[in-house]
Structures are given as C-alpha cells and as structure tokens.
Amino acid sequence: LATNNSGLFKLSGVLTNEKQKEVTKKNNISISPNLNDGRFKINFNNTVKSDKNIKVFNTTGLLVYEKQSKNEKILSIDISNQPTGIYHVKITTGKESVYCEKIVKM
Length: 106
Description:
This protein is mostly beta strands. The protein contains one helix and ten strands. A five-stranded mixed beta sheet has the order 4-10-9-6-7. Strands 3-5-8 form a three-stranded antiparallel beta sheet, with no helix packed on it. Strands 1-2 form a two-stranded antiparallel ribbon. The protein is globular, with a radius of gyration of 13 Å. It starts with a strand and ends with a strand.
C-alpha cells in the first residue's frame, strides 16, 4: 500500500481485470465465498508451492490481517472481527504478487 500526493491510499500491485484473470488462471488460486461473514477460504490447488504471504486490507488501506503460509493447500481466513465492507486480499510468493482479489464482508 502507498499514499498518493493527496494522502489517499492505493493498493499497489493491483492488477487490471484481464491481467488478474490471466494471473489467477496461471496460478489456479480461488477465494470462496466472495460474499461472506468475514470467514473465507483460499484454495491454492497445488500450483503455488513456495512460501506465501497473505495480506488483507480494508478500503482505507489498513492492514487488518496477515499470515505466512508454507504448504497449505486450503487456508482459512477469519476477519469476522472487522466491520462490514470491501476488503482486498493480496497473496505474494517471494517478491512476486500472484493474486489480488476483493471480498465483501456482509
């Protein structure tokens, strides 16, 4: 995350829809359910074998969740203690951002 000159937050490394679809298909990562109560799962489908860093940001750019993952195929995330709204999930392996997705906590 970074701020621009006006002090607004922006999520750096966010991919365009087409590029995101390409990266998602290549890495075969899925998040479900997208609309949730703050509890959701990330399925890595055995394609991302290296260590992973999972970060969840709220719409103001505040990091609300972070976890390191090694060999888990399915990772359960719980941000149910956060307010309802839109959150950004960013997954990186090493220095490469492999997946960015929005989820909606209802």
